[in-house]
Amino acid sequence: MEENQHLVHHDAAIKTPNPSTSPTSIVFNAQPFGGGPGATLTAVMPYLRSRLKSLGPIALHYVGSSLTMDLQKLTEAKWDGIHNVDLYTNPDMGKKKLVSLLQHLKPRLVVTAMDELVAAAAQMAGIPVVIIDLLLWFWPSISPHWRQAELVIAAEFYGVQERITSEKLTNVVTVSPLGPPARTTRDPSSGVLLNFGGMINPLMPNEEYIAYSRLIYNTARRAIYLRNAALPESQRAKLTVLVASLDVAQGIDPEDPDAARMVLPDEALKLMALSELTFCTAGLGNLYAAGAVANQVLLLPPLHEGHAIQTHLIQKAGVPVDAIEWHELTGRAPIDYYRDSLEVMGNVSKAQSEVIGSPKAQAALVNRMLAAMLRSASTGALAQDPPLRMLINEFGQDDGDAMAAQIMDVLARV
Could you tell me where the Basic and acidic residues compositional bias lies (predicted)? Predict the structure, then answer.
């Protein structure tokens, strides 16, 4: 792990408040784009709680909206306060609510996982800000609010170090990406896991990602039916479906409210490790989890440019990964994922609609998933490390404590 050598940890030097005063408040937030930001805070919080014991009375407050609220309520994070503040549906009203909350809580620090709107409001109020950035390599330009932050904690990935150098970012430290320890045993595996992860994006209408989940879910059900019909009864498999959003869980199959479920991250990892095959979206959280514990993996068609570019970068780095692209199904030219975000999502929406309306395209998707199922059924648990393990070998993995240590370093000086 590389970091600015001038930024060191001083847990013991943190100023301790007078015990008779009210608890010191720290506000945490995650942008509601996918599951990674919210899951990151869930991973960091227990380690930070442990380190904060030297600080005296403290109150940790979570501020967020959409699927990030679903995740914080699902996990047993035990925040001292959870506040639903939506800065995207109605930005003006959301900003007023956030400013009012900050004035009430008077936090010593605001920690946000990549939400520029929250960082801006806190900085305008004179509150020190720490930004956890899982995608420093990705942004078309670096926000001035990143440059004004007390610290940016960047998760390593291809292009991160180059971005720090080219942008002359002096307030950035890098840490290994969050993820579970890489397993060292190969347990018996069976079944197929369909893990949608965090798909929700405030720029995307609800009906878009629900339509996506229904398309993939119905296709996977058809493929596993064909798989089981082609194999002996002793090799028949069950399809397990995981989501990170209550909206998707409730909308994926109107006739079966139990078709998909939300589970704690640890349970999702156990299911991934026990499945002979995992279908998942190409979010970084899924990629690192798959690299640590999965057997065979097939990446689903990208919902946005982030999924696609991450896949392209790991393939460019020589990581062999099986991934479905929309043009394989539609027969049209590949989508250019390096264009404007809204343009890319519009093109993805068109491709998705075309597949939904085309029995031929759906058959191609069924065949792609069925081929992966039959291949995994014939090989079972891999005798060698999964291809995505190369990501962990390259960048390592953090359980959340490295990020917690960096936050403590900031608390020592603000």
Answer: 1-13
> 405 vs 47, 59, 113, 157, CA distance in Å?
8, 18, 16, 20
Among candidate residues 6, 165, 50, 28, the one with its CA nearest the CA of residue 154: 165
Token representation of residue 325: 């692209």
| Helix H or strand E encompassing 131 | strand 129-133
* Single-letter amino acid, residue 276: E
- The 10 Å Cβ neighbour count of residue 407 is 24
Helix (H/G/I), strand (E/B), else coil: 327: helix
Closest CA to 32 of 85, 109, 97: 85
Condensed to tens digits (0 to 9), the pLDDT of residues 295-308 reads: 999 999 999 899 99
pLDDT (tens digit per residue) in 44-60: 988 999 999 888 899 99
60-95 burial, b for 16+ CB within 10 Å, e for fewer?
Answer: bbbbbbbbbbbbbebbebebeeebebbbbeeeeebb
In terms of DSSP bridges, do strands 172-175 and 151-155 run parallel, antiparallel, or are they unpaired?
Answer: parallel
Half-sphere exposure of 295 (CA within 13 A, CB side): 29
Higher pLDDT, 34 or 152: 152
Going along the chain from its start, the domains and CATH numbers come out as 11-178+398-411 (3.40.50.2000), 192-393 (3.40.50)
Mean pLDDT calculated for residue range 353-357: 96
| 261-285 b/e (C-beta count within 10 Å ≥ 16 → b) | ebbebeebbebbbbbbbbbbbbbbb
Phi-psi region of 300 (alpha: psi -120 to 50; beta: other; left: phi over 0): beta
